[in-house]
Amino acid sequence: MRCIAMLLVALVVPPAASVAAQAPADARRAMHANNAAWARLTAAGHSDSLAEFYHPNAVVYPPNMTSLHGKVAIREFFTAMNTMSSPPPVLTLRADSVWGAGS
């Protein structure tokens, strides 16, 4: 069964050259889409959805606060932040530069 699964993965993955050619444009589109989603989710106060952007072991360093470790702590932070004002604050993200590394 493992041989079949590995063969299917090999058939589904496009050649490396075409992935490399598409990667910068695809990455830029994905970043813009995620940044737009971030603003919508903060404006709507969706702390659960915002926490999904983070790795389970992520660390966030809010200004003038102790660091937050893990998705649960990050979710709780956004939940608390959303209760501090009505409507919730709108946070926006913007990428100034993007670099790629690797093959």
Account of the protein in words:
- With 103 residues, this protein is mainly α.
- The chain has a domain at 27-92: Roll (Nuclear Transport Factor 2, Chain: A).
- It contains four helices and two strands.
- It has helices at 2-12, 16-44, 47-51, 71-83; strands at residues 59-60, 68-69.
- A two-stranded antiparallel sheet has the order 1-2.
- A hairpin with a 7-residue loop joins strand 1 (59-60) and strand 2 (68-69).
- The longest helix has 29 residues, at 16-44.
Strand content: under 5%
Strand order of the largest sheet: 1-2
Q: Roughly what percent helix? A: 55-70%
| Uncertain ranges | 1-20
How many individual β-strands?
2
Structural class: mainly alpha
Span from first to last CA? 30 Å
Mean pLDDT: 75
Name of the CATH first level of the domain at 27-92: Alpha Beta
The CATH architecture classification of the domain at 27-92 is Roll
Radius of gyration: 18 Å
Note the main sheet: 2 strands, antiparallel
Count of discrete alpha- or pi-helical segments spanning 4 or more residues: 4
CATH fold topology of the domain at 27-92? Nuclear Transport Factor 2, Chain: A
Q: Order of SSEs, N→C?
A: HHHEEH
Summarize the structure.
It contains four helices and two strands, in the order αααββα. It has 103 residues and is mainly alpha-helical.
Features:
103 residues, Nuclear Transport Factor 2, Chain: A, 4 helices, 2 strands, disordered N terminus
